[in-house]
Amino acid sequence: MIKTLQQAKITREERVKLISDAESLHSFNSMLNRTRRKDIQDFCIRRPYTLAVEFTERQQELHDELLRFESNALLQLHGSARSIPFMMSTIKRQAASCIFGLAPHIRDLIKRRFQQMEDDPDLDYSPGFTFDGTDANALEALAQNLLAMADNLPDEDPKFDQMLEAIMEKQKQENNKIILFSTFRYTLYYLKKKLLDAGLRVEQVDGNVKDAMRQEFRARFELPKEDADAIDILLFTEVGSEGLDYQFCDMMINYDLPWNPMRIEQRIGRIDRRGQQSETVSIYNMITNGTVDADIYFRCLMRIGIFESSIGECEEILGDIATQLDHIGMDTTLTDEERKIKLEQMADNEVRRIQEMNRLEEEEKEFFGFDLSEYMTSQEIHNAENPWLTQKSLQILIEQYLYRRLGQGSYILGEGDAKQLRLSAAARAELRDDFRKLPSGRNAVRQSWDVYLKGKAPIHPITFDAETAEKKRDNFFITAMHPLAKQAAAYFASNEQAYIRLQYATENLPNGSYHFSVYAWSYVGINPHFKLVVVCDDDVIAAELPDILQEAQSGAAAVKMQPSDWDMLERKQVKLWMDEKAEEIKEAENTSTFKIESLSNNFRNRKRSLEQKIIDTSSESIRRMYTSELESATESYELKVAEIRKKVDQTDIHTTLIANGILEVVN
C-alpha cells in the first residue's frame, strides 16, 4: 500500500485496490461486507403524496371522549399524572390511525380498566359496573357516554373514502398492485373488510401469518391482474412485511405513520430497492389533521425529506429523531402551538446534521479525487462472479452427472427457467447412495433433498435461476451448495491429471497449436483465498486463456500426449509461484505489523485503565476482580498476537495441477 501511495500517478484500478487493501486490515473483513444503498446508484424516484383529512364532528367527539376516559382511568389506577402521557401514547395513535377500527373494541377496553380497578387492593372500588346507566360514578358515566358514542358512530369515513379514490385510480393501470401499511391490526381488520366490500382482492399479512402463507400471498400478489387468483392489495403491519421484497409493486400507502423515521424507511424499502421495475414509486401518506401524528408529519418527517430520498445512511441521526419525537409527542405540558414550534426546531437541527454528514462524504470523494463508489460496487460484483458456477455451467454439470451415473435418459425436463427433475425409484436410490457419502450436516435444503430421494414421487420442480427460485419456493434451487451439485462435483473429482484438447475460432489471435496448463493456487496464512492460474507457452495466448476456456470447443480426436511436453510450462509456473509467494509473505508481514500494533494500542489503553482502577480502589474484593480482569486481558492479547504470528509463519501457496492441454487456434 505504501509503495503504491508513493507513486507519482495512481490509476483508478490501483485506487480501488488501495481501498480494498485498507478494508482488509479490519478484523471482521473475512466475515462482513457492507454495500451502502448510495453506492449502487440505480434506485428509482420517490414521489410522495399527502392525503390529509379532517375528523367528522362525531368522530372528533368519540376521539376526545375516548382519550378523556383513558386518561381518567389510568389516573385512578396509577395515582400519578407523570406517567400517564407515556401510557396514553398507543391509544392516541390508534385513535388517530382509524377510529372505526378501534370503536368495536372500546367495550373491551372499558371492561379491562374497570376489572383492573376491582382487582387493585389499594383502590376502594365497588364492583358491578353493568353499562346500564345506573352508576353515578363520574368515570362510569364517562364510560357509558363513550359506549353510546361508539355504538352510534355513523358510517361516514372521509379518510377511507379519500384513500379509496387513489386505489381505484391505480386499479385502472396495468400494474395495479398496492401495499398498505398500518401499525395496528385493528385498523387492518377494518380496512380489509371495507376494501373487500369495494370489490378488491385483498389479503392481510401480520405477525400471526405463517411463512408458508406469506409465500403464497406474495406469489398471488405478483400474478397479473387478469389472473383470477391474483391479489390487488396486500395489507401489512411492520412485523408482517419483514423478510420479503416487492420490487414489482410501485405504490404504497401509509394509513398511519410510525414516529420512528427508520421504520418509515424500512416500509418504503419493501418496494424502493434494487430491482424495482418502475422508474418511480408512489408513496401515499394518510394524515388526520388535528392530531399529534399530523404535527409530527408536517413539521418533522416532511422537513427531513425521508419520503423523497433515502436517508438510511444516517442511522444515528434518525435514532435521535425518533427519541426526540417520542418526548415531544408525549409531553402533555406543551400546548399545541408549543409542540409545533419544538417539532420545527428539532427538524431544522436534524436536517442541518444530515446535510453536514452528506457534505462531508462528498468532500471525502473530492479529497481522493474520484467518486469510486459505483465503480467499486461493479468491481466487487465482477470479482465475486465465477464463470464456472453460472446456472448454465451447473446445469451441464448436473446433466453430465446424471447421464454418467444413471445412463442415457431425459432427467431434467423443461425449456424455461422452471424445470422438472424426473427420476425413477431405482435412480433415486442410486443418487441417495452418493448423497450419503457427502459430509454430514443438517439444514433444510439437505432434508428436502433427502425426503425426495426417499419418497415415492418421481417428479420434483427444480430451477437454476435465482429469480424463479424466489417466486417458486417449493422448487429445488440448484446452486453450487445444493447436495445434488456437491454429488456431481464429488463424482467427477479425480486426483489424476487431465489432458484435454480444445479448438477456438478467432481472427484476433495467430493460428497454431499452443500448450497450456491450469493450476489451482490455494493461499494459506493471514489472508487465505483461492484462484486458478493458467500458464501457456505463448504470453499473448496466456492473457486470453481464462476467457477462451469458457468458449472453446472440444478439439479433434485426442492424440497421444506426453507429460514431458508440458515440462517447460511447469518450470514457468514454478517461477510465477516463487515470485507470488515472496510477494504474499511480504504482504502478510506488513498486514501482521499493522494488526499487532492495533491490538497493542488497545491493550495498552485497557491495561493502563485497569492498573489505575487497582490503585484507586480500597476494596480488596474489587481489587481482585480488576486484577483477574487484567490477567484475562493480558492472556487474550498474547493469544491473539501469537495467532497472527503463527499465520504469518504459515504463509504459503499450495499448488495443484488440474489439467494440461493443447489449444488449437483457427480462423
TrEMBL record:
Q: What residues does the Helicase C-terminal domain cover?
A: 159-322
To which species is this protein native? Blautia obeum
A Pfam entry, by short name: Helicase_C
The name on file for this protein is Helicase C-terminal domain-containing protein
What keywords were assigned to this record? Hydrolase
Superkingdom field: Bacteria
The record ties this protein, via CDD domains, to: SF2_C_SNF (cd18793)
Q: Which PROSITE patterns match?
A: HELICASE_CTER
Q: Which InterPro entries match?
A: Helicase_C-like, P-loop_NTPase, SNF2/RAD54-like_C
Q: Does the keyword Ubl conjugation apply?
A: no
Q: What GO MF annotations does this protein's record show?
A: hydrolase activity
